Amino acid sequence: MSKRKSIVILTVLAILIAFMGFACFASGPVPGSIKDYKGIFGVIGKGIDLNGGYYAVLEPKDEIDGDVDAALNAAIETLRSRLDENGYTEATITVENFTNLRVEIPEVDNADEVMELIGDQGELTFRSHDNTRLVYGKDVADAQAGYDADGNAVVYLEFTAEGQKAFAAATELVSGYSDGENYLAIYLGERLISSPTVSQKIDSRQAEITGIESIDEAKTIASVIKSGALDIEFTVGATQKMSATLGEGVLNNAIIAAGIGLLVIFAIMIVFYGGMGIAASIALMIYVVLYVCVLAIFPWVQLTFPGIAGIVLSIGMAVDANVIIFDRIKEEYANGKTSKASIAAGFKRALITVLDSNVTTVLAAIVLWILCSGSIKGFAITLFLGVLVSMFTAVLVTKWLINVVGGLVKEENRDRFFMLRRRDA
Amino acid sequence: MLNFNFKDKNLKIVQKFWIFLIVSAVIIVAGLVDTFFVRHMNLGVEFEGGVSIDVNVSGVAVESGKIEEEVISWLKGGNEKKDVFEVDGTVQKSGVGLKTLTFRISSSKKDANGKVVNLNVEGADNKLEIVHTSDYIKDSENGLPAHLREVFGEKAVIDVETQVISESQANVTVRRAFIAVGVAVAVILVYIALRFNLLAGVSAIVALIHDVLIMVAFTTIFQLPVNMTFIAAIITIVGYSINATIVVFDRIRELHVLPSNIEKTDVEIANEAITGTLSRSILTTLTTLVMIVILAIFGSTAIRDFALPIIFGLLAGAYSSVLLSAPLWVKLRKLFKQENKKPVKKIKKIKEQAKA
User: Fold this and answer.
1) From A39-53, A376-390, B311-325, the region with the lowest mean pLDDT
2) What pairs with residue B53 in β-bridges?
3) Cα–Cα distances in angstroms (integers) from residue B293 to residues A155, A264, B212, B226, B289, in the given order
4) Which of A79, A90, A322, B244 measures 20 to 30 Å from A196, CA to CA?
5) A374 at the B interface (CB within 8 A)?
6) Is A372 on the interface with B (CB under 8 A)?
7) Closest-CA residue of chain B to A262
8) Which of A184, A211, A242 is the last residue of a domain?
9) What is the mean pLDDT of residues B20-46?
10) Which residues of B touch A383 (CB under 8 A)?
11) Which conformational region is residue A171 in: left (phi greater than 0), alpha (psi within -120 to 50 degrees), or beta?
């Protein structure tokens, strides 16, 4: 690559990284506007420990019969899956005063509504006009939120084989009633969601619930249907907004720490690998902004402090791939290859190592993602995304950047610039 | 120019395996004995249950931090009723509400000396003891409100609420996390067995278990509080440490199939692989340590409590992947009489590729 081309590419990259870095991490008032700029990093959902949230105490309506702990644990399981389904993986549930459940949810817009739905006993029933229950939650195999053809939020239901029969029988019965009574009321607990008019028997595996206000509500309803009914009926007791449990400013400190750490890593990489270290440093900056953007795109990412630490740590890990590759290049060069051949061989050979070592981490993350709930699930998601992004930047982006950075110095000085030395030289 | 040049040196790491193993074993045994028989882990509210205290002082001007200071010193035995009530374990502050401060104390009743919440109720079981503690703290005559009124004056409106927190849910989460880690480890084992060989997989998993045990040992020895973030720290290390081990086995795999190495013994190949990857192992551990240490320096106590186990885990991971995993593989191959088994098929394949 010619020197001029290298300089142009690096300048463009510097501007891009500076712009993206600013877009990611800057925050504060926008001049000439009353709005605050939040930054891409600020958009990522955050847990209660960093950003506070909302808590509500669920109190059982009646005294619980039998084994209280077992009943509460079953209820927690159900609530947990509802929260996870709605993307609140960082919500926590604790048992308080032996019979109450304290639910803490980070970053909710309409907390009371969420609690009303999440804490609802939530048995799905289809009822006729005289309140006869015809179809139950157990008849539903799956529930998904979505939009209908007109763009309205709906919940798609898929019945079990039994459910299909019950639904067909129910629609046949209801359609026979006179006008005004020929509807099927859909209840979640004691909450009426909608009551569509039925004009004929519907023998179908699928059905949809309409009359839902927003897609968020549809998602919550779907999650409540899917998780099954609660055996305990709760009332929502004390509710309150809560501040960040780790205290304010933790996030800023972590960002500053990450920045300083990055500078130290740049220094280490450049001292050890010269020009290749410069390429790796640029790749690392690209990694950071790319990763932040990816985290912001995925709606079910909710960062807690361990998550932040995971990101910080993943920066350290992203360097690992580069170290493996560069070491390999040095070795190939020491054994007599030209620098160009060494770089090609180094990347080719080290790719296997990087893949094998990262695939294990990805596998572990997927297992945790599937099997765990709550904050561990959230952690697994950030880990999974971090490893994927780092493999891309550390291997592909770095390879290209070495070529670009190499163009800055004359061909005959390039080997020294990359700190490549012959054995015993 | 700096350079870690180990490649041409023979550090004879495989031959020193037993020394390295004994060093680890001593730490692990000491830590586990401490964990199970002496001081136990310093478990947080999530695991042991306890009391959550909400404190709200209004009506008077209060310096920031003053309430926190007063509450903690009172809980820690600064009250006159020291013989009745004293917390010598963790008091976790977690801000609830915009004005209300929340404190959480864990309740483990361990033995005469290791108690966290110590309320002198004869013959009380743990559950009852927590209820008593909870009631005592909010008691307006003798408890925290009385103390705060003394400090902030009669004008202050003092509101102290206490809740008893049960431990059950955290334990369910942890049990599930451990099952998940177990499954993840099994999946990793299968992957390594397929990509490398079974004994390499077994060695890598033993190294992972080693790292987790060292973390547990140090966490108990330094009495760091154990809460959900500790579980996250363990998982972080499991994900990270396996990388380093694989890099070493990758090098062994490569050296093994080199035609020029066909006469070399397992010991020679393992040593060569370890020294060949040593500069990478050191450098990577260094860069990762830099990040986490700086985070610990800038962070609050809660953050340091999370960072320290990770730092122990990183060091343990570097130690095990360099000094234990490959030597263990050599010993296992000898044990199962596989030391002469060379991957001949692969050599043929490589030769064919070279010709083509």
Assistant:
1) A39-53
2) B103, B162
3) 48, 12, 19, 19, 6
4) A79
5) yes
6) yes
7) B291
8) A242
9) 84
10) 236, 239
11) alpha
Distance CA(A262)–CA(A316), nearest Å, equals 9
Query: Which of the four pLDDT bands, split at 50, 70 and 90, describes residue B349?
Result: low
What is the strand order of the sheet A124-127 is part of?
A133-136, A124-127, A185-188, A191-194
The one-letter amino acid at B120: N
CATH of the domain at B124: 3.30.70
The helix/strand/coil state of A101 is strand
Structure token digits, residue B49: 């249950």
Query: In 10 A of CB A129, how many CB atoms?
Result: 15
What integer is the mean pLDDT of A116-121? 71
Query: pTM to 2 decimals?
Result: 0.76
CA distances from A66 to A40, A70, A131, A300, B164 (A): 50, 9, 30, 37, 21
A151 vs A147: CA distance, rounded Å: 5
Q: How confident is the model at residue A380 (pLDDT cuts 50, 70, 90)?
A: confident
Is residue A311 situated within a structural domain?
A: yes
Residue A133: the pLDDT is: 84
Contact indicator for B160, B53 with CB cutoff of 8 Å: yes
Amino acid identity, position A389: V
ipTM for the complex shown: 0.74
The Cα of B253 is separated from the nearest Cα of chain A by a number of Å equal to 10
Contact A353 B286 (CB under 8 A): no
Longest pairwise C-alpha distance within chain A: 99
Give the pLDDT confidence score for residue A23 in this predicted structure.
83
Are residue A283 and residue A355 in the same domain, yes or no?
A: yes
Q: Residue B233's domain spans which residues?
A: 14-42+169-355
Instruction: State which residues form the domain around A87.
Output: 53-242
Least Cα separation, residue B176 to chain A (angstroms): 6
The label of the residue with tokens 């040049």 reads B5
**DSSP letter string over A206-254?**
EEEE---S-HHHHHHHHHHHHH---SS-EEEEEEEEE--TT-TTHHHHH
Find, in chain B, the residue whose alpha carbon is nearest to that of A265: B287
Name A208's Cβ contacts closer than 8 Å, sequence gap at least 6: A148, A154, A155, A156, A157
Minimal C-alpha gap between A285 and chain B (Å): 14
Give A144-190 pLDDT, tens digit per residue. 888 888 888 888 888 888 888 988 888 888 888 888 788 888 888 77
Query: Per the structure block, which two tokens stand in for B141?
Result: 């005559």
DSSP A354-407: HHHHHHHHHHHHHHHHHH--HHHHHHHHHHHHHHHHHHIIIIIIHHHHHHHHHT
B302 or A88, greater pLDDT: A88
Residue whose token pair is 């907390």: A111
Task: Tell me which of B197, B298, B301 to substitute to probe the interface with A (most A C-beta atoms closer than 10 Å).
Answer: B298
- In the structure encoding, which two tokens stand for residue B50, read together? 């306890």
Name the minimum distance, in Å, from the CA of A16 to any CA of chain B.
25
Q: Do B351 and B308 sit in the same domain of this protein?
A: yes
- The answer to whether residues A360 and A220 belong to one domain is no
Least confident window among A331-345, B51-65, B68-82, B228-242: B68-82
Per-residue pLDDT for A267 more than 90? yes
Residue of B nearest to A373 (CA): B173
Domain final residue, candidates A201, A226, A242 = A242
Find where tokens 């390039």 sit.
Answer: A414
Residues of chain B neighbouring A98 (CB-CB closer than 8 A): 164, 166
Q: How far is CA B341 from CA A114, B256, B336, in A?
A: 62, 10, 11
